[in-house]
Every structure is written in C-alpha cells, then in structure tokens.
Amino acid sequence: MTLHELKSGKEHALGLMVFIGRAVTESDLFARLVDSGAAIGNVEETLSLLRSYLEQRQSLKIGNVVRLAPAVEGDVDSCRLVLVAKTPSSRGRLCDGG
C-alpha cells in the first residue's frame, strides 16, 4: 500500500504528518481525489476509507512519519496508518525525489 500525493500524482511508501492550518474533512479529500483524476469505484467505500484515515490521523503528531498497511492482513480495501518514526531521519529523505 502506498500514499498517493494528490498534487503530483506520485506514490510514496512513507508520509510525514504536517500542519496545514485548517480542518480537513473526508469531503475535502474526496473532492481533491476526484480533481486529481483518480478512478473511484465505490463512492461510499472511498468516503469510509477517507473518514477512517482522518480518524487515525488524530492519534498522530506533527512530524510523525507514517506508512499505510492493510487494517486486516490481505485486505487491500481497508487500511491503517502505522507510525514508522516519531520524527524524520536527519540522514535520509522520505520521498523519492521530492
């Protein structure tokens, strides 16, 4: 499972929790997903997945490094955020080329 960068379309194995200065809802993310041109098979399942992502994000702190993993092993339709590190490594880059 990878994180999908909506602005560029790039996929990343790891992500960094950042502060953007405003609340974000599943509707906000869904609109950005649609605008990115991503194929959406089932609207309700996608909204549920985005809602779950936002709920899980609440337990994380700004600067945490995360990755996506299946919520249930082998189930690609569900995911959970996994804390990889409390802060990014000062020696490495999180993104490939970004």
Give the helices and strands, then pairings.
Blueprint: E1 3-4, E2 11-12, E3 15-16, H1 26-35, H2 43-57, E4 65-69, E5 80-85
Antiparallel strand pairs: 1-2, 3-4, 4-5
Helix pairs in contact: 1-2
Question: Quick summary of this structure?
Answer:
With 98 residues, the chain is an alpha+beta fold. The chain has two helices and five strands, in the order E-E-E-H-H-E-E. Helix 1 packs across helix 2 (43-57).
Question: Mean pLDDT, as a whole number?
Answer: 84
What's the structural domain tally? 1
Number of helical segments? 2
Radius of gyration: 14 Å
How can the largest sheet be summarized? 3 strands, antiparallel
Task: Give the uncertain stretches in residue-range form.
Answer: none
Fraction of residues in β-strands: 15-25%
- What structural class do you assign from the helix and strand content? alpha+beta
Spatial order of strands in the largest sheet:
3-4-5
Query: Helical amount among residues, as a percent range?
Result: 25-40%
**N→C terminal distance:** 19 Å
Q: How many strands?
A: 5
Overall 3D shape: globular
Taken in chain order, the helices and strands follow as EEEHHEE
Would you give an account of this structure?
With 98 residues, the chain is of the alpha+beta class. The chain has one domain (3-85). Helix content is 26%, strand content 17%. It contains 2 helices and 5 strands; from the N terminus they run βββααββ. It has a 3-stranded antiparallel beta sheet with strand order 3-4-5, covered by helices on one side. A two-stranded antiparallel ribbon has the order 1-2. A hairpin with a 6-residue loop joins β1 (3-4) and β2. α1 packs across α2. The longest helix has 15 residues, at 43-57. The two termini are 19 Å apart. The model has no long low-confidence stretch (mean pLDDT 84).
